[in-house]
Specification:
The protein contains 23 helices and eight strands. By secondary structure, it is an alpha/beta fold. It folds into two domains: 382 residues, no CATH class; 92 residues. Strands 3-6-8-7 form a four-stranded mixed beta sheet, with no helix packed on it. A two-stranded parallel ribbon has the order 1-2. A two-stranded antiparallel sheet has the order 4-5. A hairpin with a 5-residue loop joins strand 4 and strand 5. The protein is globular and about 85 Å long. The N terminus is likely disordered. It comes from uncultured Alphaproteobacteria bacterium. Keywords: Membrane, Transmembrane, Transmembrane helix. This is Glycosyltransferase RgtA/B/C/D-like domain-containing protein.
Length: 507
């Protein structure tokens, strides 16, 4: 794409009015606001909240050493812990504060999905359709969680937009150099969310190198030289990142300062040990996409969107296809979240392919056909992702019959007060086998087993929870699918409407 055509594309954004932006933002916030009234599920968000809150306290006292230790010991890159800092500093360490940046990022993602579709089609209507349909999906359930995927999705859409404006080309003009720097900054931001984004870094930098090599022979040397010099600071930034977050833990392990890998070294070793050629990840990704979008439609959007990328941006297609291959056939476990980001990136391209390639549909039937699709997606989202269920009344059978896989059910509300009432008169130590939110967020003042060790039996039953000093937790919070290995001298208390049970060891 030439600079002139890029400028022409910029003009297309004027087809989107402020009312259009408000409609998409209103739809996205209206749907995702239910996340402010849900419960924490699992440990990921609670760990983000804990780390971010402790970083806020450390920064207030000027303890930069503790700040570095907190960020370095986390399993994930630091951006997920850094972006909630302002809201936590202003509003305190609450669910609202830690999720607020993710919800705002999700709203921006919906807007970007619309503006990218406008850029692709010159159609305000198709842009609105793209932005609103993304906002109506159940994707918000995951994107609005404080686990970093909402940020990655937003950054990925910024990259899509940037590559449509300025595709990789030989760096022979100042405009080309500025475009390369902007693209590199977006890539590094995505890398700071999840290091799997390095696949995009490698692919897009390769396209820049190919463009430099293919420059006219009298300009080739200059193009390669400029690419090397402009890329060097970013390459050094990537090397510095790995030196700090992988090299330092590895050095401490080799020198005997720690007994086991920690932080991102631990996470990378775990990923490398579980990675292998497989098809199960693809199956899981399809099931996850079915559940969070709409059965069949979501996976089709990903496939059609990749075709749209191939038509409009070879660099974006190549990097996205590489990403798809790795997270679907090589990585194992927890790949569905990454696939959902890819689905959102594909959405505006799929809208462009479907609506611009079918003139009859685009010209005569958008209200009827798109209205039916929007109604179906909206109904699915309301039914499975917005309506407040109890832990025990959630329609899991619907997800199973639709070949779906819920990673989190944030609208399954745990009766926190009822659990608290049961725990209020607890004597002795308390331990949790049902996530860390009970200890660190809901009931931090109970007599918890600190730095606990959970011992399980061969079939996953709970043998014991002991504190660091060896004391036994005599009250155990668990899920109703869990049991104690021995029920002798153990009572089991259930809580109506809750998936939580309480075991009390009486002897």
């Amino acid at each position: 794409m030439t600079n002139a055509s890029a400028g022409s594309c910029e003009g297309k954004l004027h087809l989107f009015t402020w009312l259009d932006y408000l409609v998409i933002v209103g739809a996205s916030l209206g749907v995702s606001a239910v996340m402010f009234f849900s419960s924490f599920h699992g440990d990921d968000e609670v760990m983000t909240l804990r780390v971010a809150a402790r970083v806020v306290d450390a920064l207030k006292t000027g303890d930069f050493r503790l700040t570095a230790m907190l960020l370095g010991a986390d399993y994930h890159p630091p951006l997920r812990n850094l972006l909630p800092l302002p809201s936590i500093a202003l509003l305190g360490p609450t669910m609202f504060a830690v999720r607020l940046p993710s919800i705002l990022a999700w709203s921006l993602s919906c807007v970007l999905a619309g503006t990218i579709a406008v850029r692709l089609t010159s159609s305000r209507l198709i842009g609105l359709i793209s932005g609103i349909l993304v906002a109506l999906t159940g994707l918000f359930q995951l994107e609005a969680m404080a686990i970093g995927h909402g940020y990655l999705t937003c950054i990925g859409l910024l990259l899509c937009r940037q590559l449509l404006i300025d595709p990789p080309r030989a760096l022979l003009e100042k405009e080309d150099e500025r475009a390369f720097i902007k693209t590199s900054m977006i890539l590094y931001a995505g890398f700071l969310c999840f290091t799997t984004f390095s696949l995009y870094v490698a692919a897009i930098y390769t396209f820049y190198l190919i463009s430099a090599i293919r420059a006219p022979i009298d300009h080739r040397r200059r193009a390669i030289s400029r690419l090397i010099w402009l890329a060097l600071p970013f390459v050094l930034a990537y090397l510095a990142y790995y030196a700090v977050f992988i090299g330092v833990p590895l050095y401490m392990l080799k020198q005997g300062y720690v007994d086991a890998p920690f932080g991102q070294l631990h996470q990378n070793l775990l990923r490398s040990q579980t990675a292998h050629l497989n098809i199960q990840s693809l199956i899981d990704n399809i099931k996850t996409t079915n559940y969070y979008t709409f059965p069949v439609i979501g996976p089709l959007i990903s496939a059609i969107g990749l075709i749209g990328m191939l038509r409009r941006s070879p660099a974006l297609f190549a990097s996205s296809f590489l990403y798809f291959i790795i997270i679907s056939f090589y990585m194992s476990g927890n790949t569905g979240q990454h696939f959902l980001s890819l689905t959102v990136w594909c959405f505006p391209f799929a809208a462009a392919v479907i609506l611009r390639s079918n003139e009859t549909l685009a010209a005569t039937a958008p209200r009827a056909v798109i209205g039916l699709v929007a109604a179906a997606i909206g109904a699915w989202t309301f039914w499975l992702h917005m309506w407040p269920y109890s832990d025990t009344s959630y329609p899991d059978d619907v997800a199973a019959r639709s070949f779906g896989n819920p990673l989190w059910r944030n609208n399954a509300i745990t009766p926190i007060e009822a659990v608290g009432a049961r725990l209020g008169n607890t004597d002795g130590l308390v331990g949790s086998a049902a996530g860390s939110a009970w200890e660190f967020y809901y009931f931090p003042n109970l007599n918890w087993a600190r730095h606990p060790t959970l011992t399980t039996g061969a079939n996953g039953c709970i043998q014991s929870i002991r504190s660091q000093d060896g004391r036994l937790a005599t009250t155990v919070i668990a899920l109703n699918s869990q049991t104690m290995c021995s029920m002798e001298h153990v009572t089991r208390e259930t809580i109506p409407g809750s998936a939580i049970v309480i075991f009390r060891i009486t002897g």
